[in-house]
UniProtKB/TrEMBL annotation:
Phylogenetic lineage: Bacteria, Bacillati, Actinomycetota, Actinomycetes, Kitasatosporales
Keyword flag RNA-binding: no
Cell compartments where the protein resides: Cell membrane
Annotated transmembrane regions: 24-49, 61-82, 122-141, 161-179
Domain called Cytochrome b561 bacterial/Ni-hydrogenase: residue spans: 17-178
Ranges in a coiled coil: none
Membrane topology: Multi-pass membrane protein
Protein name as it appears in the record: Formate dehydrogenase
Gene Ontology CC, one term: plasma membrane
BP GO terms, sorted: respiratory electron transport chain
Organism: Streptomyces phyllanthi
UniProt keyword annotations, A-Z: Cell membrane, Membrane, Transmembrane, Transmembrane helix
PANTHER family attached to this UniProt entry: NI/FE-HYDROGENASE 1 B-TYPE CYTOCHROME SUBUNIT, NI_FE-HYDROGENASE 1 B-TYPE CYTOCHROME SUBUNIT-RELATED
Amino acid sequence: MSPRADAPAPSDSRVRRFSRAERLVHRATAALMGVCVVTAACLYVPQLAELVGRRALVVTLHQWSGLLLPVPVLAGLASRAFRTDLTHLNRWGPHDRVWLRSALRRLPGPRPAAKFNAGQKIYASWIAGATLVMLGTGLMMWFTHLTPLVWRTSATFVHDWLALTIGIVLAGHIGMALGDPEARKGLRTGSVSGEWAGREHPLWRP
């Protein structure tokens, strides 16, 4: 994809980036994921388990927050803006390969990106797949009478190690968000500055 001839938004203007429905989906998903991660830590780290106590309550919170995790995304499908952004996240072009190559080689200068850059697309695909795997393995661990022992043992192994991987990836995701105040403002208010949009997403035309 090559840049269009449209003039970029003035640097002092605000550009609409996310609808209210999209921001609510993100907040609800983040809250449920946060409960999953915190309760998982309380279940697996002995020091936290001793500090928090009430293991049965922590287990219940972990189970239900995990079970409800897909609900915000499913509810968001009622929003046209959300469905459109899912299409953007699933659409790859030559500029995404250029962005990835530049990012991996740490090349200086601007990187071509439409509304979502290649890194955001990879993260969205990975976390969606990981969530489904965690949901499936978690259900096998929860309803122990429905599956053979070998399945439950394998599910526990996958669930535990994937949970650790998710924790690391989420830490990276949060760290990158903390380093970009304008991106966080876009998720909080729905709009970003024209200067930021032109610099970080030069191929995006709202």
